[in-house]
Amino acid sequence: MSYSGEYWLKHPDAPFATFLGVVQTHLHSEADPDNFSALKRRVRNDRADDVELQTFKAEFSRLLKGDREGLPSDAISLAADGDSWTTDDEFLLWLQAELYPQEPAPGEAV
Questions:
Q1: pLDDT at 9 (0 to 100)
Q2: How many helices (H) and strands (E) are present in the chain, helices listed first?
Q3: Residue 21 pLDDT > 90, yes or no?
Q4: In Å, what is the CA distance from 5 to each residue of 9, 20, 86?
Q5: What pTM does this model have?
Q6: What angle is formed at CA 94 by the lines to CA 68 and CA 62, rounded to 5 degrees?
Q7: Which of 5, 8, 16, 83 is the most buried if burial means most Cβ atoms within 10 Å?
């Protein structure tokens, strides 16, 4: 199946749909500015019963490791809608540093 636009809104089972939905909800330019702080709190709490967050983390980890299978090339930029980065990798590394500052990004020396 081929996806385009904000496909994750209509196809929640599509590849990386949870990651993209969380990013859009918390980081999109039209999102409430407090949403990103709320996401940071959720990440710090890291509740095992927060299924959406656990799925987000798993999909985020795959993306950081370079697994983009099934992800349209414009999906991350559509979800994040930011202009502070020029590539998906730059955005992903920034987000990793913001949400998980104590953890090295995949490929970094420990």
A1: 75
A2: 5, 0
A3: yes
A4: 9, 12, 19
A5: 0.87
A6: 25
A7: 16
